[in-house]
Design goal:
The structure holds two protein chains of two kinds. By secondary structure, chain A is an all-alpha fold. Chain A contains nine helices and no strands. In chain B, about 50% of the residues are buried. Classes of the chains: A mainly alpha, B mainly alpha.
């Protein structure tokens, strides 16, 4: 049983935290425009395409559905493999069918959540998520703008990916409530349908023929 | 007991919220080289992430090698810094070396392997020495004493950055803290790998 918190203590702690927060001085860490700009644009990049958002949130949703250890194994594996894809994209190693792979990732991960697929060996789930991470990373790697601070950009980019996974996990936790599991599966259906749309877009001749074609679900040109 | 457990988090929160304006480098001439070294360290993200990754690896192998790392890392950082001060020439592959250290340290933290004590110590000496050396060559102190003092600030900060997360992990012997450490490790490794790609792309 969770002990009932002392209301006076809780209030005073909250008050202390509130005072600290409001008295925090102007944050001008690294006034160097390169660094802050690098972190900002790196952090914003994964949010710039619905296809990336859908797939990364789906990773979190599936992880939450599968429970431990998948709930943390998938978010640990994804950034690492995504970085491998990003690395390949940065040094100019081509990866054919990137947009198709990204569309397929949303479709298959959506299906995995909708059907609540539970692989007997979690390695298969990690491998599937890893392969998709490769495509997403490669697409981002080829789109990274030159002239930013590489370290800050990379860190912002990785943290944003983690935040998207975290969002997926947090949303996935509705499975604990009555009826939550059904809502979760419905979300999987929505993501799978979005995946179908991304795939159709990826197969459009103009997207296929354009060198360095932009992400199919982009909100803005990269 | 709960308030005791909350204490380290509160200390961290105070550090975060009490942050003042960051005026990297300008501080060297106004508040003394030691404080300048501290500020320089915390504004050099690659140094902070490398020390953090090493701290996590040390905490994951605390029984075998953890405590030794906490003196080996600052010692190697200091000796490397002194060597860098003496060498005092820019290193062309500095960014690449830094990125590689993030990849190695982060990957080991993400995998949370039970490593032999000698390997953990070697890692601390190698990475600490390398980051210290890169700090040393980048410094342009007016006198050797000022350089030494600045280096002292950097080394003290590196030791803090490595020991503080390890202490948190040791205090909160909960499964979720181990998971947070591994996720952080994977983020550091991913950042390192992307930075390697970034560096190679720029040099194409």
């Amino acid at each position: 049983m969770i002990p009932h918190p002392n209301p006076t203590w809780t209030r005073s702690r909250l008050a202390i935290i509130a005072i600290w927060l409001v008295s925090a001085p102007l944050a001008l860490a690294h006034v160097n425009g390169d660094a802050t700009g690098g972190f900002g644009s790196g952090f914003k990049h994964p949010w710039s395409g619905f296809d990336h958002i859908a797939a990364m949130v789906a990773v979190g949703l599936w992880g939450a559905q599968l429970g431990a250890p998948a709930i943390w194994m998938l978010p640990v594996a994804f950034p690492l493999v995504m970085a491998v894809g990003g690395f390949l994209g940065l040094i100019g190693v081509p990866l054919p069918g990137t947009e198709i792979g990204i569309g397929a990732s949303a479709l298959l991960l959506g299906i995995a959540v909708a059907a609540e697929i539970r692989p007997k060996n979690l390695i298969w789930a990690a491998a599937l998520v890893g392969v998709f991470g490769l495509f997403h990373g490669h697409a981002h790697g080829t789109e990274l703008p030159p002239g930013e601070n590489g370290l800050f950009y990379s860190l912002g980019f990785v943290i944003a990916t983690g935040v998207l996974h975290g969002c997926g996990i947090a949303i996935g936790e509705i499975r604990r409530w009555s009826g939550g599991a059904k809502v979760l599966r419905m979300l999987g259906v929505v993501i799978a349908l979005a995946g179908v749309y991304f795939l159709v877009q990826a197969f459009r001749p103009e997207v296929q023929s354009e060198p360095g074609a932009v992400s199919t679900g982009s909100l803005q040109p990269h | 007991m709960k308030s005791r457990r909350a204490f380290p988090w509160m200390v961290g929160l105070v550090f975060l919220l009490a942050a003042t304006r960051a005026e990297a480098h300008a501080v060297f001439s106004t508040r003394g080289p030691f404080i300048g070294g501290i500020k320089h360290f915390f504004l050099s993200l690659d140094d902070v992430l490398a020390a953090l990754a090493l701290g996590i690896v040390a905490a994951q192998n605390l029984a075998k090698a953890g405590n030794k790392v906490f003196w080996a890392l600052p010692t190697a950082w200091l000796l490397g810094g002194l060597a860098g001060l003496a060498f005092n020439e820019p290193v062309r592959a500095a960014e690449l070396l830094s990125a590689a250290s993030l990849l190695i340290g982060g990957l080991l933290a993400a995998l949370s392997l039970a490593l032999p004590a000698s390997l953990v110590l070697a890692l601390a000496v190698l990475l600490g020495g390398m980051h210290g050396f890169l700090n040393g060559v980048a410094m342009q102190p007016e006198t050797f004493g000022a350089g030494l003092s600045q280096l002292g600030g950097i080394v003290a900060s590196a030791a803090f950055a490595a020991i503080y997360p390890s202490t948190l992990l040791e205090i909160f012997k909960q499964p979720w803290t181990r998971i947070v450490a591994r996720v952080l490790g994977s983020w550091i490794a991913a950042t390192g790998l992307l930075l390697i790609g970034w560096t190679l792309r720029v040099k194409k």
